[in-house]
Task: structure prediction
Amino acid sequence: MIPQLVTVGYRRSGGRRRRIHLPVLPVALLLSPLLLLAVLGGLVACAVFRIAPMGALRGTGSVLWALPGTFFEVEEGSMAFLVSVR
Result:
């Protein structure tokens, strides 16, 4: 299952927490022109480094498929940053 929602949260030194919820599909649609350039750049990189494009695509798909349920948090002193993928 592809990710549906990414939650990014951070805590400032004052202790206030902020969370931003980003739906993946609308953001992907807005950034689709850049995504097309990234795919073309990936194909050029595959040709330069002699990597099978289908193998690279399969590996990228596997990483994206495994993202739901990922939770990443970094805390340093009074600052905190977290990313949650659902």
